Amino acid sequence: MSRLKRTDRPYDIVLFGATGFVGTLTAEYLAAHAPEGLRWAIAGRDEEKLRRLRERLGVADLGLLRADVADPASLRALAEHARVVATTVGPYVRHGEELVAACADTGADYVDLTGEPEFVDLMYVRHDARARETGARLVHACGFDSAPHDLGVYFTVRQLPQGVPLTVDGFVTADAAFSGGTFASALGQFARGRQMAAAARERGRHEPRLVGRRATAPVGAPRFAPEVGAWALPLPTIDPQIVRRSAKALERYGPDFRYRHYAAVRRLPVAVGGVAAVGTLVAAAQLPPARRWLSERLKPGEGPSAQKRARSWFSLRFVGEGGGRRVYTEVAGGDPGYDETAKMFAEGALSLACDDLPPTAGQVTTVEAMGDALTERLIRAGIRFRVAAIR
Ligand SMILES: NC(=O)c1ccc[n+]([C@@H]2O[C@H](COP(=O)([O-])OP(=O)(O)OC[C@H]3O[C@@H](n4cnc5c(N)ncnc54)[C@H](OP(=O)(O)O)[C@@H]3O)[C@@H](O)[C@H]2O)c1
């Protein structure tokens, strides 16, 4: 708790987008779990909605800030009022940049829920250097994308010998539903393949090369994976990119590290059906009328019910190898998209605000910024990290 005392800013954490679907779950989590003395505030564009939320949360002295992404001065003020800004206002590629810029410029730490590689790459190109100057930590993807994958691979690596080449394969299984906000972000991404590739190339031109070590995340081929007893389909989410960045940043991943990321599906027809469904969605997202029709199926602010969420779960299995050892690990929990995302996001913000962390600045992954501390927090909060077997 030592960092809580060293500040002249009015709030330790400001939660922006607090009235949205994940925002509300995150506010409820903070209301229930914030340590005594934490000064936090909810922020958003609609003051009336914020007041109603504050009333429902019943937290004495909860701050309330009005800010709109269309009003850069309000975002600047928000960043100046906070040590840590946590934002759920997405799709980030559309709504996110001004706030990242404000945090980088004012030295506020920043954490979000994006799963959009284009946004993360552009923010690196445009704001990493300024954030390094001011000391701001810019942590993207601190929800189910990508905290449990990033922390799970790190947990696996730490079970393996040091100083030798390592490989880790990750296998994702989950049973869950989407919110309107996630659906909108996914549709937007599917329609922006060219922009995503261009942003990745631009990042490549700016990023320093890794010297004397290798860290890769190639797309694996579909295969039956006997090590997990399931069909493994390559999963092109942002997760492998984040894992690779952590591996580039930390020596502990060894001189030559490789990560491959898969969805694990028990039955072949389900695997084939899943690929076909995603393919259809990606194709439909290219056509504006189809995209509009799809986005109206699930509106912003809507999401799975508490009952549906209570039945949802995720399991990430990792198989790590190196130095003559093979290790099987698992990270598992409840509803990945919302309840657990709100937990990971809130704990990430709390960790940045409260924990003694390694000194970092600029765009950093969850592992770089707060790997050990956040893993401990998530374990205490009920997310399971376990070593299933070592051979
Ligand atoms: N990383 C992960 O695993 C993960 C998991 C879940 C969600 N997500 C992402 O998190 C984001 C939020 O999802 P959600 O389901 O909570 O979406 P949502 O319910 O639509 O919430 C979006 C929030 O953004 C606010 N907002 C929209 N336009 C704004 C503006 N001009 N100025 C200020 N605030 C504005 C909304 O305010 P109002 O309340 O006033 O409408 C709302 O609070 C999405 O990008 C989604 O993809 C990521």
* Structural class by helix and strand composition: alpha/beta
Q: Note the beta-strand portion.
A: 15-25%
Would you count the extended β strands for me?
15
Order of helices and strands: EHEHEHEHHEHEHEHHEEEHEHHHEEHEHE
| Ligand names | NADP nicotinamide-adenine-dinucleotide phosphate
Question: Stretches where pLDDT falls below 50 for ≥5 residues?
Answer: 1-6
Count of domains: 2
The total count of helices amounts to 15
Q: What is the residue-mean pLDDT, rounded to a whole number?
A: 92
Which shape, going by the Cα principal axes? globular
Radius of gyration: 20 Å
Described by strand count, sense and barrel closure, the largest sheet is: 8 strands, mixed
- The CA-CA distance between the termini, in Å, is 39 Å
Give helix % range: 40-55%
Summarize the structure.
This protein folds into 2 domains: 2-143 and 340-376, Rossmann fold (3-Layer(aba) Sandwich); 147-335 and 384-390. Helix content is 45%, strand content 22%. The protein has helices spanning 21-33, 47-57, 72-80, 92-95, 97-106, 117-134, 147-157, 180-190, 193-206, 239-249, 268-285, 288-297, 306-311, 339-354, 366-380, and strands at residues 11-16, 40-44, 63-66, 82-87, 109-112, 137-139, 166-175, 214-216, 223-225, 230-234, 256-265, 313-322, 325-333, 362-363, 384-390.
Can you walk me through this structure?
Strand 12 (313-322) and strand 13 (325-333) form a beta hairpin. The model is unreliable at 1-6 (pLDDT under 50). The strands form two sheets. Strands 7, 8, 9, 10, 11, 12, 13 and 15 form an eight-stranded mixed sheet that branches. Strands 3-2-1-4-5-6-14 form a seven-stranded parallel sheet, sandwiched between helices. With 391 residues, the chain is an alpha/beta fold. The chain has two domains: 2-143 and 340-376, NAD(P)-binding Rossmann-like Domain (Rossmann fold), CATH 3.40.50; 147-335 and 384-390. The chain is 45% helix and 22% strand. The structure holds NADP nicotinamide-adenine-dinucleotide phosphate. NADP nicotinamide-adenine-dinucleotide phosphate is lined by residues 17, 19-23, 44-46, 49, 68-70, 88-92, 95, 113, 115, 141, 143-145, 179-182, 185, 300-301, 303, 337, 341.
